[in-house]
Amino acid sequence: MLTLLKNARLYAPRAMGLCHLLIADRRIAAVVAADQGAPASGMAVEEIDLEGRRVIPGLVDPLVHFTGGGGEGGFGTRTAELTLEDALASGVTTLIGALGTDALTRTPANLLGKARELAAGGLTTYCYTGSYQLPPVTLTGSVGSDILFIPEFIGVGEVAISDHRGSQPSSFELARLASEARTAGMLAGKSGIVFIHTGDAPSHLEPLREAARDSAIPLAQFLPTHINRTPALFEDGLRFAREGGRIDFTTSTTAELLAGGEVAAAEAVARALQARVEPSHITLSSDANASLPRFDDQRRFVGLEPGRLASLFEVLGQCVEEHGIALEQAIGMASTHAAEALGLPAKGRLEPGRDADLLVLAEGEWAIDEVWALGRRVYHSG
């Protein structure tokens, strides 16, 4: 069955005006201006009139804790797994799963199984092998073979630097890890990205600079997240991006984190653009279902809240409605740039040949009316 979405006010992410989109075999087969008539006339086509509502690419989230996270305060502080229902309603159609602090009771096998569960529900899912600590936990015995032989594994992460919960890796260890992931990625046709959890220690992003400076690994092989968690880290992140690296802002937050100096994600995007950071070097991730822990001045755990997948769409709206960022530019932060950094060429754009992952936005408010994933409508607000 072919599906024709008529009269979509399309952001691909470039603003295209009123268009018709023809979907076939999970992908976009054609995009034509509405005034040129509908494609595939005379064929068996299911037609759906979107009546001028905005259509944007499905969101791409580089950091989701499919299997939950937390545990820093004991077993009673473990966060729950992501449910399919929450995922489908969030607007995120491509999710990359990771382990965090706990790679003992949560494993790469758990992560892969959960990824395939969500994929069976209609979403696109990938994973990072490894976790906060080095040497990394893997499924096959090495980072390289995980990336090479397991389709869902596209890189390694969430490796912790500048954080008391990490293994305090040296720049040499980081360079060796990035080399293994990069080479395996080249052999498998994947990015081999090294996704980095950045803590609030004064070293900030310096370990990544040292790894790149002392090796042939480019800065862009690393994608560090939580760059908006403290003012000092934020400023160091802007310098890192100007030096050629990519930076990722976390959209899930708490009142306590903001009161402690965290830069709200939408504000971080606006300030980064004002500072003339290359937009393609900025991504957003939700850190969904991770714990957002609170520690006292002795690094003792005092409480947590879970990250939320829906925060990615919410922050995209704040970028547009509160900070005046053009929708076509803001989409890049929540979809297109992550797809490019992660080596997912079918994602992040609504063009012929790309996957038919898209959001139909509500008229007159920042809300999702429909989510389409791989050519199927998987969520409707009604």
Task: Give a quick set of tags describing it.
2 domains; Urease, subunit C, domain 1; 10 helices; hydrolase; 18 strands; alpha/beta; 6-stranded parallel β-sheet; 382 residues; 8-stranded mixed β-sheet; TIM Barrel; single chain
- What value does the Rg take, in angstroms? 20 Å
Rough shape?
Answer: globular
Total E-strand runs: 18
> Terminal Cα separation, in Å?
24 Å
Largest sheet, described in full? 8 strands, mixed
CATH architecture of the largest domain, please?
Alpha-Beta Barrel
CATH class designation of the largest domain: Alpha Beta
Please name the CATH topology of the largest domain. Answer: TIM Barrel
- Percent helix, as a range, is 25-40%
Mean pLDDT: 95
- Give the count of helical stretches: 10
Strand content: 25-35%
How do the helices and strands follow one another from N- to C-terminus? EEEEEEHEHEHEHEHEHEHHEEEHHEEE
InterPro entries: Amidohydro-rel, Metal-dep_hydrolase_composite, Metal_Hydrolase, Metallo-dep_Hydrolases_sf, Pept_M38_dipep
Subcellular location: Cytoplasm
Protein name: Isoaspartyl dipeptidase
Function: Catalyzes the hydrolytic cleavage of a subset of L-isoaspartyl (L-beta-aspartyl) dipeptides. Used to degrade proteins damaged by L-isoaspartyl residues formation.
